[in-house]
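[INFO] parsing input record for Arrestin-like N-terminal domain-containing protein
[DEBUG] input buffer:
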Amino acid sequence: MSLKGTLRVDLGGDTSRPYHEGEQVKGRVTLVLEEEEKIVGFNLHFVGTCATKTTRPIYVAGNEADASHSNRPYAERIALFTREQKLLPACTLAAKKYSWDFVFTFPSHTEAHFSRWSHGTKYCRKPHSLPPTFSLATDSPGGQASVSYMIQAKLSLESSSLRLKVSQMLGYLPSAQNTPLEPRIRPRVLYAQALNPGLEEVTVTNRKTVVKSSRKRSNTTTGQKIVPTLYAPDKVAPGQDIALLLGLAGMNGGEAVRCTLDSLEVKMSTYTSARCGQSFSEPEDHVAKHVTCISKKNMNQELSYSTSTALTTNFRLVDNAECVPTFETYTIARRYEMTVVIGIKCEDELFTIKTTSPLVILPRRTPSDNLPLEEGEDDEPLPLYQPREPSKEFAPDYDSLYSLALSPSACSSVGTRSPSFMSGLSSPITVPTTPETELEQPVYPSQPQRAT
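[DEBUG] output buffer:
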């Protein structure tokens, strides 16, 4: 027997916006009954879950022709946290409309504890920061990895063995309070990829060892050894400028060689791992995606030894569904890498520098985030408004301010105004000192002219 009525969960405000830790989730549960019902229990749950699913092939005799029937499914679901509010105990409700308001607060950390002996060594044993809302289909058949948050109302009826469930999904994103305004640039000195103009590399391979050495090319001049340094951020938020710079430094004091930037290629790699956490098999899916962001050739840009050369201009990450902040939870992990390939020409020789480094993506700052104050600046609030008594001083008479009485003065005198004119109108007004020949008599068309 089904419920004759409706059950609805409504959220207040913008339902599409992401929530942050410490923010309140407010809403209302509405139950409309068309006839009298006996309620066994009515509860409201606020939960965060981490779910993974995958399959692995298993051999069964006789199914060589169709291997799809021999896939063993694996699934795991972990509760990151759980909040419960009891709306009604067992009772009988009349046919009418009922509503309940609720308020939940997003926690900052997970609550689940797991032993690595029973769930594997890759499990996060201790509580950690909540991961952002996430969903991804893996390459395995039926593979899925998701992190979700929801408000769920569960209604149990005496006349039915089934529970009526209504859920409202919530978006979550870690707060950007710890995200800096600008990414910090860090140097990476590439000693192993030093440039040796005029030398060629010779590789000698033995049974057990590989020996690399350099020797001078014929009819060439050996220049100084050049060590490149790449300046790049290791943490960045979507929308922030990813500045890449290249510096060159001579090492052995030889003759300086003219170098130019020939090519540049920048790739972003995304790696996602999803585990089911079984104690013995631990099936794990890996998803990798590589995107070429910058590809330039024949740049012919002069490189300096004294200053660093900017490689990029206005290079930023797009804030979309793919740009999820870096996180690692019990069974799902998301990380990023940035690969930079630089082609450098030293005289007529072409050298290639390649470096791959991890890149941590932080939550994006929004205009609502409070900007940090400058060093030494105090956050002084504005004073509270206090009503005051109106001034009892009357405004000065118009004729006293602009008197028509003229005073004789020399033609060479300069018109001056009292310094107290703007500060206090109650002070005496200075008599006009404009020459008589420059003054004009006022005309009043609506009144008869005064006798002089």
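[INFO] The chain has two helices and 23 strands.
[INFO] shutting down worker
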